[in-house]
Amino acid sequence: MVAIKSDQLDFVINVMKDFKYPWFFAGGWSIDLGIGNITRDHEDIDICIFREHALEVLSYFSEWTIYVAIPGEGRLELCQTLKDLDPPRYGLHLHRDQDFIEILLTDRSGEDVLFRKNHRISMNYKQFVQEDSLGRKYVAPEWQLLFKAKEGRLKDEEDFKACLPFMRNEQRLWLSSALQKQYPSCSWIKQLTT
């Protein structure tokens, strides 16, 4: 598989080079890294960091302006303390001049990563973290697709269609099972099993 070249990815790698805790590319980039090809333009870049390292995130990005997304309200608030990140808050928008990174705080319990919307859905850490030939770590595409299944946006449908031919049987089985628990009427379930 040919490694993807991208200024967006290189920018984040450079920003995160001194961060001492695990972090992973997420969002649409996790799909493209999993496929090994850029399938569409990405208007921004998301990374995943475990919630247990939220304080370290605030410290590391102390020179940036940090906002937290308020779930269900479609608005951002300035994030100044760890208390501002109490669940169900999870999305951080970081700005520095023209630079922007979105961080998605993700929960885990032991070796299991927990799906934010339903903790009965989880994935083992070793399955959750994928790595390309250049050592760039990213969220398992099937995990990312579970989040995208709810949205119904054109880019999410495109990501699913792009990823489907590359998914191994165990990835299809995990996503199908998770969708049946979370979004049982999702049209992707049938496509995963045909």
Quick take:
With 194 residues, the chain is an alpha+beta fold. The chain contains eight helices and eleven strands. The strands form three sheets. It has a six-stranded mixed β-sheet with strand order 1-2-6-5-3-4. It has a three-stranded antiparallel β-sheet with strand order 7-8-9.
What does this structure look like?
It is a single chain. The protein has 8 helices and 11 strands. Helix 2 packs across helix 5 (141-151) and helix 5 (141-151) runs parallel beside helix 7. It has a domain at 7-140: Beta Polymerase, domain 2 (2-Layer Sandwich), CATH 3.30.460. The protein has helices spanning 7-16, 27-35, 54-60, 125-128, 141-151, 154-163, 169-182, 188-192; strands spanning 23-26, 46-50, 65-70, 75-78, 91-96, 99-106, 108-109, 112-114, 122-124, 129-131, 137-139. The protein has 194 residues and is of the alpha+beta class. The mean pLDDT is 95. The two termini are 26 Å apart. The radius of gyration is 16 Å and the shape is globular. Helix content is 36%, strand content 24%. Strands 1-2-6-5-3-4 form a 6-stranded mixed beta sheet.
